[in-house]
């Protein structure tokens, strides 16, 4: 659902909401609960402060002044109008308001602010101050993280004290109504089962035993359903007033459950705490607007008001579908959405075209990975980041895990096959090549909203090897890859060498290798790429899959075609697949080898469909997902090792459109890269991966995320810095 501002917001399942009994909600005119402590009430009533704070917006706009008001347990903020035309009362809340900060005097009694564009309920908030900047502090809520800065450290102390006092008072006030859980009068009939078993001639004692098994399973299911449903409604119960007052409904972007809380590094946030390393600064950036911000969370720093769990009343109305949807979700991974950037920075310089043929005409028959191309032919991503781009549709693996968990092994491998194909979808019309990483270069991708954490490292220079490791919801994915390429004048052929491995938590493993990629029309015509060959997805249990990527031809009217089938261990075909690697994949019970497209099949079911293209693709034709991969938010730089691709200077200059600087840095780093072979010959070893003595593959040895948490990068080389050969 889209808000008026065009931003996405996540709402509770409508079926889930229909199960709320209105009788469980307080009447609109119900009197407020009396304060348990008169002194606290008096103190809380006095907490009504206002003033100017600097608020981080985004990279384009930076820090902007906003008028903040703290009244009745709610922190709100507004834009400040630069004209002095509007006048009125200070905050509309009645009573005396204390101003904090000298900048607030510029506004004084004349209110030059617009209507509030953001509201934070202190009941569900926590505060942290920055240790690296004595004027900065953060306000965390389930829907947003405010990054704020005062004019002086004294002002920060005053704001923090006011927030703590207001929150302490507000915490003493309880909601006037409670939502309670009562058992729905759902019953299960075993009459059909009993009749069927009678037909089979079973005796009465065995039939009763079967009935008891069914009833026991249903009882267990109902108990589990109750817990899951309470998780869905707990946050709704504590934030009900936001709905009643018509405020931003995006406060419910997904409940944060006990599992999230128990796995957190810090546990439940206190009312006020400090951090040594400004770990939350990493999420400052993104394409934020001042009026509508999404949630910002560090990967392991989710929080919950865990001691205020409300339960829910299930009415007797029919809402089975909604309940089942809730039961099927893995609530331990539900986290709010994180806003990431939607476009690259505007180029600082005008581009100048270069003839590709003039550069590579002397390289016919050579390995193109050894040919140094001008930075003009690069896109602002490294090959390490391109590896992660293959995981854009990682939700398919989440679904595959759940399918197998429910005993549907066939649907699991179909989803795995769709995932293996989906990695090629973003390669359409990508005219530029990624940067070749330096030896020891790394890349991390922490996407808590997707439930995945990815890491890659260049582990060898000759041969050029990249190793990666990714952890998801119930699965792990890893592999190493060596690209062998040959230039044949009009085209380049790229043959990936290496095995990709996917292992689910229940022990099922799938392995496959990528198919050949050819880039056509280097000299004449429009540049395009094709993927062709046969992909074998081998499983260690019941099923395997074979997919054929059709090789293009001059007369081909149906390019990008992928056809295949799933077979069991006896060679029996269990299902068939058809689709296009740049569009979608379907499965069917009918043989797809004789048809040219899915329209010729009846009853085919969709497995995967490509996301819509980015509205801001630039000349690199990047997808919306790819645009986020090189984003460097404020504070993230201090948390990354010096080897991360985001810190590579030529790539960063290219992204910013600083082509002269990018070219100069690329030449410098290429000179440094020539020393890598000597470094490798002298015994250099990868920092985060180790080579298996049996098959020679590289496996992640761990320790990276722990070092990141501690900020311990002492043993990481400054590979992008100056280099002396002496």
TrEMBL record:
Question: Which intervals hold domain PH?
Answer: 46-168
Report the GO molecular function annotations: sterol binding
Keywords on record: Coiled coil, Lipid transport, Lipid-binding, Transport
Query: Where does the record place Polar residues bias?
Result: 262-275
SMART domains, per the entry: PH
Q: Where are the transmembrane segments?
A: none
For region Disordered, the annotated ranges are 262-282, 634-662
Tree of life domain: Eukaryota
Keyword set includes 4Fe-4S? no
**Coiled coil keyword on record:** yes
Q: Pfam families this protein is in?
A: Oxysterol_BP, PH_11
Recorded GO cellular component terms are: cytosol; membrane
Q: Where is the composition biased (Basic and acidic residues)?
A: 645-662
GO BP terms, alphabetized: lipid transport
**Per its UniProt record, what PANTHER family does this chain match?**
OXYSTEROL-BINDING PROTEIN-RELATED, OXYSTEROL-BINDING PROTEIN-RELATED PROTEIN 2B
Physiological role: May be involved in the transport of sterols.
Which family would the database say this protein is a member of?
A: Belongs to the OSBP family.
Name of the protein: PH domain-containing protein
């Amino acid at each position: 659902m889209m808000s008026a501002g065009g931003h996405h917001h996540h709402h509770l399942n409508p079926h889930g909401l229909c199960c709320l009994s209105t009788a469980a909600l307080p009447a609109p005119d119900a009197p407020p609960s009396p304060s348990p402590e008169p002194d606290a009430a008096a103190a809380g009533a006095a907490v009504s402060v206002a003033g100017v704070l600097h608020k981080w917006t985004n990279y384009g706009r930076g820090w902007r002044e906003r008028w903040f008001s703290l009244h009745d347990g709610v922190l709100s903020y507004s834009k400040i109008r630069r004209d002095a035309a509007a006048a009125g009362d200070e905050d509309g809340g009645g009573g005396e308001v204390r101003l904090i900060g000298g900048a607030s005097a510029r506004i004084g009694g004349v209110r030059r602010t617009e209507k509030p564009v953001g509201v934070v309920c202190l009941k569900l908030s926590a505060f942290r101050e920055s240790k690296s900047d004595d004027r900065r502090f953060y306000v965390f809520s389930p829907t947003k993280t405010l990054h704020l800065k005062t004019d002086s450290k004294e002002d920060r102390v005053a704001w923090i004290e006011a927030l703590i006092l207001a929150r302490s008072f507000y915490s003493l006030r309880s909601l006037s109504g409670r939502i309670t859980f009562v058992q729905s009068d759902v019953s299960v009939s075993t009459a059909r089962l009993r009749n069927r078993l009678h037909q089979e001639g079973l005796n009465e004692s065995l039939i009763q035993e079967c009935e008891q098994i069914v009833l026991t399973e249903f009882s267990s299911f109902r108990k589990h359903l109750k817990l899951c449903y309470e998780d869905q409604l707990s946050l709704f119960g504590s934030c009900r007033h936001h709905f009643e007052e018509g405020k931003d409904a995006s406060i419910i972007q997904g409940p944060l459950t006990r599992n999230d809380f128990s796995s957190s590094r810090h546990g439940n946030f206190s009312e006020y705490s400090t951090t040594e390393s400004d770990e939350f600064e990493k999420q400052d950036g993104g394409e934020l607007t001042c009026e509508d911000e999404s949630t910002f969370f560090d990967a392991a720093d989710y929080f919950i008001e865990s001691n205020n769990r409300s339960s829910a009343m299930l009415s007797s109305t029919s809402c089975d579908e909604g309940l089942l949807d809730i039961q099927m979700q893995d609530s331990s991974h539900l986290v709010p959405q994180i806003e990431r950037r939607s476009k690259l920075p505007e180029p600082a310089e005008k581009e100048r075209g270069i003839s590709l043929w003039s550069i590579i005409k002397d390289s016919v028959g050579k390995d193109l990975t050894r040919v140094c191309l001008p930075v003009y032919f690069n896109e602002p991503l490294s090959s390490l980041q391109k590896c992660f781009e293959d995981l854009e549709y990682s939700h398919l693996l989440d679904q595959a895990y759940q399918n197998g968990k429910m005993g549907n092994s066939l649907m699991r491998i179909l989803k795995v096959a769709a995932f293996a194909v989906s990695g090629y979808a973003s390669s359409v019309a990508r005219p530029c090549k990624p940067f070749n990483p330096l030896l020891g270069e790394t890349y991390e991708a922490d996407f808590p909203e997707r439930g995945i954490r990815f890491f890659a490292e260049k582990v060898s220079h000759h041969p050029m090897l990249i190793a990666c490791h990714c952890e998801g919801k119930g699965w792990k994915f890893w592999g190493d890859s060596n690209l062998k390429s040959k230039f044949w004048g009009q085209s380049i052929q790229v043959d990936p060498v290496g095995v990709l491995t996917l292992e689910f938590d229940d022990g099922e493993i799938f392995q496959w290798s990528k198919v050949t990629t050819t880039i056509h029309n280097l000299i004449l015509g429009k540049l395009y790429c094709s993927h062709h060959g046969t992909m074998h997805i081998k499983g260690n249990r019941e099923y395997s899959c074979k997919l054929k990527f059709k090789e293009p031809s001059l007369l081909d009217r149906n390019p990008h075609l992928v056809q295949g089938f799933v077979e069991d261990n006896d060679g029996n075909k269990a299902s068939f697949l058809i689709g296009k690697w740049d569009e979608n994949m379907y499965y069917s019970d009918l043989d797809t080898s004789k048809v040219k497209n899915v329209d010729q099949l009846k009853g085919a079911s969709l497995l995967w469909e490509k996301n819509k293209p980015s509205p801001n693709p630039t000349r690199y034709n990047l997808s919306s997902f790819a645009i986020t991969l090189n984003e460097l938010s404020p504070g993230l730089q201090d948390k990354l090792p010096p080897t991360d691709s985001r810190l590579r200077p030529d790539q960063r200059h290219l992204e910013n459109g600083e082509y002269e600087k990018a070219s100069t840095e690329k030449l410098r780093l290429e000179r440094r890269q020539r020393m890598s072979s000597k470094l490798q010959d002298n015994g250099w070893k990868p920092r985060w991966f180790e080579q298996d003595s049996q098959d020679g593959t590289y496996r992640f040895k761990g320790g990276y995320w722990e070092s990141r948490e501690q900020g311990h990068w002492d043993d990481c080389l400054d590979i992008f810095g100056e280099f002396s050969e002496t």
